[in-house]
Amino acid sequence: MSTASELRVVPRSLVESLFEVGGPNTERVTVLFTDLSSTLRAIAVARGLGRALGAPVSLVVVTTPKFPVGGGQEPTTREAEAEALQVRLRAAGDIRCRVVAAPRASDALDVALAPGSLVVVGGRRRWWPTAASRLCRLLEAHGHYVLFVDEVLHAA
């Protein structure tokens, strides 16, 4: 019996049959950065999915720049975590990292994702709306296929 934290690799023919014509764009599996721990778990799931589909995995970090009144601005915790994650992934060499800056997150997603993209988002499932669940709804409204990875269920 498998646990929730295991990922089974499904044969390519079965995966292809699940995505018939009009399904997701499986040329690439995209992970959106939410926070460090959730994104690391989402990357682990995306790597398995990418192997099953024969598709590369990429990480997209969406930033909405805040224009300071004065001089420079210190990076936020989220930006510092995203930068640390990018350094780790570049060292591994198997995931392409991309930072997209736009005034609104929805504008950045339009630029960063191809139509009908397969997107993996990590977060914690709660009964109230979280930033990750709102992001999933936004992606689905834009026509993307979203796989939500619950951080608690995929803990190492």
Mean pLDDT: 77
What is the beta-strand fraction? 15-25%
Number of strands: 5
* Structural domains: how many: 1
The best one-word shape is globular
Oligomeric state, counting identical vs distinct chains: single chain
Give the distance, in angstroms, between the N- and C-terminal Cα atoms. Answer: 17 Å
Q: Strand order within the widest sheet? A: 3-2-1-4-5
Tell me the radius of gyration: 16 Å
- CATH first level: which class? Alpha Beta
Structural class, from helix and strand content?
alpha/beta
Low-confidence runs? 1-5
Order of helices and strands: HEHEHEHEHE
Q: In the CATH scheme, what's the topology name?
A: Rossmann fold
Tell me about this structure.
This protein has one domain (25-65, 74-150): Rossmann fold (3-Layer(aba) Sandwich). It is built from five helices and five strands, in the order αβαβαβαβαβ. It has helices at residues 12-18, 36-53, 77-92, 105-112, 131-141; strands spanning 25-32, 57-63, 95-101, 117-123, 145-150. α2 links the parallel β1 (25-32) and β2 (57-63). The longest helix has 18 residues, at 36-53. Residues 1-5 have low confidence and may be disordered.
Question: What's a concise summary of this model?
Answer:
With 156 residues, the chain is α/β, with parallel strands linked by helices. 38% of the residues lie in helices and 22% in strands.
Q: Which features would summarize this protein structure in a list?
A:
5 strands, Rossmann fold, alpha/beta, disordered N terminus, 156 residues
SSE topology sketch:
Blueprint (H helix, E strand, L loop, with lengths): L11 H7 L6 E8 L3 H18 L3 E7 L13 H16 L2 E7 L3 H8 L4 E7 L7 H11 L3 E6 L6
Parallel strand pairs: 1-2, 1-4, 2-3, 4-5
